[in-house]
Design goal:
The chain is mainly α. The chain has one domain. It is built from three helices and no strands. The protein is elongated and about 60 Å long. The model has no long low-confidence stretch (mean pLDDT 91).
C-alpha cells in the first residue's frame, strides 16, 4: 500500500500565520503534557508490586488483573 504526502504552501496574511502558530503551539503543549502524565502513570504501574506479581498467574487471570490495574492507575483510551 503506497502512501503519499502532498505539501502545499498556505497563503495567509501575516496575522493569520501568527494565530495559527500560537494555536498549534498550544495544541502541541497540551498533547505533550497529556503524554507525559500517561507515561508517568504507566511507569508507576510497571514498578508496582502488584504488576510484578501478576506475571506468575495464568493468562486469563493475568488479563483480568491487568485490566483492573489499568483502571486503578487511570490508564485507558478515554480517561
Amino acid at each position: 500500500m503506497a502512501n503519499y504526502v502532498l505539501t502545499l504552501a498556505l497563503k495567509t496574511e501575516l496575522w493569520h500565520k501568527h494565530i495559527l502558530e500560537k494555536r498549534l503551539n498550544i495544541a502541541r503543549m497540551i498533547y505533550n503534557a497529556c503524554l507525559c502524565e500517561i507515561l508517568k502513570r504507566h511507569r508507576k504501574m510497571l514498578n508496582s508490586l502488584e504488576y510484578k506479581e501478576i506475571n506468575n498467574l495464568d493468562k486469563k487471570e493475568q488479563s483480568k488483573r491487568y485490566k483492573e490495574l489499568d483502571k486503578k492507575y487511570l490508564i485507558s483510551k478515554f480517561e
